[in-house]
Design brief:
CATH superfamily: Metalloproteases ("zincins"), catalytic domain
Structural class: mainly alpha
Bound molecules: zinc ion
Number of strands: 3
Number of domains: 1
Radius of gyration: 17 Å
Distance between the termini: 54 Å
Strand content: 5-15%
Low-confidence stretches: none
CATH class: Alpha Beta
Shape: elongated
Mean pLDDT: 93
Number of helices: 3
Strand order of the largest sheet: 1-3-2
């Protein structure tokens, strides 16, 4: 007999795997663009270590993306995206969210409002639409 539960579980797993692979592909494209823009504006590559990109629904209500800066030398930064971003706007929307969070990764941790002139300058260069700059 065919085990429907097992088939469903495998279907869900492979769907999640597909979405995660798409997320990583979009992330790599965004990273290339952000690095190029940083070089254009600042004359050097941004000082960023490895970053893990993943779906995560557990962070602050009202936010769709977040970047967790590395906490110590050799730590990995984490770029988090809520799963509902896929249904809300698809990967074009996710591209803007990732780019926004990558700019925070490039510019490092700051207290308070980090959407300063430096952030805006890099946003403009990378082509991030104005509604995704704050
Ligand atoms: Zn921000």
């Amino acid at each position: 007999m065919v085990n429907i539960k097992l088939i469903l579980k495998e279907y869900v797993n492979s769907k999640e795997e597909t979405e995660l692979n798409k997320l990583k592909t979009v992330f790599n494209q965004c990273l290339d663009n952000v690095v190029l823009s940083h070089i254009k504006i600042k004359g050097s590559e941004p000082d960023i270590g490895p970053i893990d990109v993943m779906f995560d629904d557990s962070f602050k209500e009202g936010k769709i993306g977040a970047f967790v800066h590395p906490k110590f030398e050799g730590d990995t930064g984490k770029l988090l995206i809520k799963r509902k971003a896929i249904s809300e706007g698809g990967y074009e929307y996710i591209k803007h969210i990732i780019t926004h969070e990558l700019l925070h990764a490039c510019l490092g941790y700051t207290e308070g409002d980090s959407h300063d002139d430096e952030f805006i300058g890099l946003s403009v260069e990378v082509g991030l639409p104005s509604e995704y700059r704050d």
